[in-house]
Each structure stands twice: as structure tokens, then as C-alpha cells.
Amino acid sequence: xxxxxxxxxxxxxxxxxxxxxxxxxxxxxxxxxxxxxxxxxxxxxxxxxxxxxxxxxxxxxxxxxxxxxxxxxxxxxxxxxxxx
Length: 84
Known about the structure:
By secondary structure, the protein is mainly alpha-helical. It has helices spanning 2-13, 19-48, 50-74, 78-82. It contains four helices and no strands.
């Protein structure tokens, strides 16, 4: 699925010999985000309630989606296709 694709993407984007370092950074960032999200969601739910927690998380997801869409629209993707 998506993890296989992201590992392959990172391997192609990293300089030769640094593929494993790139994959390590990918895994660190991915799971750091999972832990930080769980901690933040728990704190928000305990202090402000479930309704606010879901609203905050929806806002975070919306910002992430907008960043993805902007990156997809404005980033030059030709160098990625050349790596295949």
C-alpha cells in the first residue's frame, strides 16, 4: 500500500548510498506524527471535550489536504518521473 510506495519514493529521491537514511527519516517522521497526534487528541478531549477535539482534528486534516493540493499543483514533478 502507501508505505511501500513512500519507501520507494524516498529511495528514488535520496542520493545514492543514502537510501536507508531517507527511509529511516520517513519512518521517524511518520510515527512521531502518530504519537504526537494521539497525545494532542487525548489532551484536547480531556480538557475541552470530544466535540472540540474532532473539530480541531478536522481543521488539521483540512490544512494538510490544502498543502498537498498546493504542492501537487505547483511543484515540478518531472524529476520524479525521470527516476523510474
